[in-house]
Write a structure and sequence with these properties.
- This protein is of the alpha+beta class and 419 residues long.
- The protein is built from 14 helices and 19 strands.
- The protein has helices at residues 3-20, 41-50, 54-59, 61-64, 101-112, 150-158, 163-173, 180-184, 203-206, 271-281, 298-309, 320-327, 331-335, 391-409, and strands spanning 38-39, 67-72, 82-86, 124-127, 129-133, 139-143, 148-149, 208-209, 212-216, 219-224, 227-228, 243-244, 247-249, 256-257, 261-262, 344-353, 356-365, 368-377, 383-384.
- The strands form six sheets. A six-stranded mixed sheet has the order 1-3-2-18-17-16, sandwiched between helices. A four-stranded antiparallel sheet has the order 7-4-9-10.
- α5 (101-112) packs across α7 (163-173) and α6 packs across α7.
- The protein is globular.
Length: 419
């Protein structure tokens, strides 16, 4: 364990002892963790900037938007936990598929409420649909998904990062339930206000929320009726830098627009809230953080976390190793120390879109736990929506390097000796 942390732990204990020596008639002493977790931002900055791969990414932070947040829950070595941040929430990061943790919680919370029309997790869901044509000859549709159960939609969204299942669950919950309960619960930055679609939907189609039904003994049971979005929720937190780049391809026409791409009406969440969502699911927030999620049954929470944990297997001709390198992008850096896959508990939701690349992970090796949440932009030409991004050249190597840094600095792993 780094020397800086040992001295800070000793100092924290000294403060706690001093605070405990209060007169009997005095009010109870404040918690020794009243100031929250120990902070080690300067140490993380040094680690990042000295790393052979992460250092150059950090040196161009105004372009790469590199942000990093590491949280270690309370332990014997750090009774109040530890928090390390690097450029946390310095500017807007489009959350891409990392935001899919929010509709999963919202939908499972609604399912947890129960009621006469609530389906079993394995009952195929039937969505009504509505269609409309845009000005460029595209027939756009909302709803009408192939029958899949709630469990199957959650698996497709959380494991395979399916946008179709995200859209189905976004429509099932509705945007209100994916924002306001989280804002009230202490996650003010969450902004889930649109589907993940290839085209911009006309207003009347975007506002449509289909009915959701299922079959019970040959009888159609309506779980949710058709609804409409009358207004979109707003977030109380806005980060700078929501106008990005030098140009973008307009989604429906395909024409290039010579102006920064506006992200102000796209989904958003701070790196801090994204990590706190995951830590709350595990009941591992700092003592001073009173955030709460919408109510979930133990079954719902267990299903969600098991889907996010893995390990993944071979599928459709793609190896488990390749799938995990894509969907758990810091994992290859950890495996480089020679650990068996079963030794690493890696629960996460990553995401990539528009050149933004994020991972939000809880990593447990042995009895040590680290939450690592990272985001960056890999789009060197500054043009968006053209499917020409620098994931392979920039963000995947950086995330692998971050995994290796975490393994070495936080878990004390040693390089595998050369043969």
């Amino acid at each position: 364990m780094p020397r800086e942390w040992k001295w800070s732990a000793i100092a924290a204990c000294a403060v706690a002892l001093a605070m405990g020596a209060q007169p009997a008639a005095a009010a109870p002493p404040p918690s020794p963790c009243a100031d929250g977790p120990e902070r080690s931002d300067a140490l993380l900055k040094r680690w990042v900037e000295e790393d052979a791969v992460l250092g150059p990414v950090a040196a161009q932070a105004s372009a790469t938007r590199l942000q990093l947040r590491i949280y270690l829950p309370p332990s014997d070595e750090a009774p109040c936990g530890r928090l390390m941040t690097y450029r946390e929430d310095a500017e807007y990061l489009y959350p891409a598929s990392a935001i899919k943790i929010v509709p999963a919680i919202a939908v499972l919370s609604h399912w947890s409420e129960g009621g006469a029309g609530t389906p079993p997790l394995d009952a195929p869901l039937l969505f009504s649909d509505r269609r409309a044509d845009d000005a460029f000859g595209h027939t756009l549709r909302v709803g009408g998904y192939q029958p899949q159960s709630l469990a199957e939609h959650l698996e497709a969204m959380l494991v395979e990062s399916s946008n179709g299942s995200f859209n189905a669950l976004y429509e099932l919950a509705g945007p209100l339930a994916q924002n306001e309960p989280f804002h009230r619960g202490g996650f003010p930055s969450i902004r889930v206000i649109h589907r993940l679609s290839g085209y911009n939907l006309p207003r009347e189609l975007a506002a449509y929320l289909p009915s959701v039904a299922w079959m019970r003994g040959g009888e159609r049971v309506v779980w949710l009726p058709e609804r409409a979005v009358t207004s979109l929720p707003t977030s109380t937190i806005r980060l700078p830098g929501e106008e990005i780049g030098i140009g973008y391809l307009e989604a429906n026409s395909g024409l290039r627009v010579e102006a920064p791409m506006p992200f102000g009406m796209k989904n958003g969440v701070t790196l801090a809230d994204l990590q706190r969502l995951l830590a709350t699911l595990f009941h591992e927030l700092p003592e001073t953080d009173t955030a709460r999620l919408p109510a979930l049954t133990a079954e719902a929470t267990s299903l969600m976390l098991s889907l996010m944990r893995g390990p993944l297997s071979d599928k459709d001709g793609v190896s488990a190793e390749s799938r995990e390198a894509r969907f758990k992008p810091m994992l290859p850096g950890l495996l480089g120390f020679g650990l068996a896959r079963a030794q690493i508990d890696y629960t996460n939701k990553a995401g990539r879109a528009y050149g933004f690349h994020l991972d939000n992970a809880r990593i447990r090796i042995g009895d040590r736990i680290a939450y690592v949440t990272v985001g960056m932009l890999a789009n060197s030409d500054g043009v968006f929506n053209d499917d020409r991004y620098d994931y392979d050249a920039l963000s995947f190597p950086a995330l692998r390097a971050l995994g290796a840094m975490v393994g070495s600095k936080l878990f004390g792993l040693k390089p595998v000796p050369a043969p």
